[in-house]
Amino acid sequence: MTTELVVLDLAGTTVVDDGLVVRAFTAAIGSAGVSEVDERFPAMLAHVNATMGQSKITVFRALLPTEELAQRANTEFERAYADLVAAGECKPVPGAEEVIRGLRHGGVKVALTTGFAPVTQQAILEALGWRDLADLALAPGEGRRGRPYPDLVLTAVLRLGVTDVRHVAVAGDTPSDVRTGLSAGARVVAGVLTGAGTRAELTEAGATHVLDSVRDLPDVLD
């Protein structure tokens, strides 16, 4: 069956995470009054690791008692992550750019998605010189729910004129990425081992394939 669209996650899948999310979270939760020595911090960090890939404002709403604190932490997270990107700590997963270019050259459309806010997604793409690399870049917002909901994948399907969700492949490094692909009806839902998820976690989430890297995705599609 022909693949018309590939939907790829950013951090951990096509972009090296290297602890940047945890560092930005530490700064963010500190702005809400929870330091690294606070007894609440380990459980909060565990929740962040367990929900990697999901919309960050949703994560902070689950952790903090008020909307004001959640919004404050989310704003600080985006600022801290943007600072890390600006400092040059954002690098592509080896081979990711070549995979995206190869897919598009072969007539497959590519969408890049994230759980970050749109401004952070754009900062990452700018830092990597990827603004025009894919056909579409999507983040939660404007009525789109983040992972594990299917909204980002289905928005890409609609905007890029895909004829059938069974012609879609999704790849990401977290169980949330896998659940998003499955709920959207994608034929291929691949977990990759370059980010947060383990082989066991991705398999348990229902991944159709578990790959060492996004570099292996074209072989699955073929």
Automatic annotation (TrEMBL):
<dbReference type="GO" id="GO:0005829">
    <property type="term" value="C:cytosol"/>
</dbReference>
<dbReference type="Pfam" id="PF00702">
    <property type="entry name" value="Hydrolase"/>
</dbReference>
<dbReference type="GO" id="GO:0008967">
    <property type="term" value="F:phosphoglycolate phosphatase activity"/>
</dbReference>
<dbReference type="InterPro" id="IPR022468">
    <property type="entry name" value="PhnX-like"/>
</dbReference>
<dbReference type="InterPro" id="IPR050155">
    <property type="entry name" value="HAD-like_hydrolase_sf"/>
</dbReference>
<protein>
    <submittedName>
        <fullName>Phosphonatase-like hydrolase</fullName>
    </submittedName>
</protein>
<dbReference type="GO" id="GO:0006281">
    <property type="term" value="P:DNA repair"/>
</dbReference>
<dbReference type="InterPro" id="IPR036412">
    <property type="entry name" value="HAD-like_sf"/>
</dbReference>
<dbReference type="InterPro" id="IPR023214">
    <property type="entry name" value="HAD_sf"/>
</dbReference>
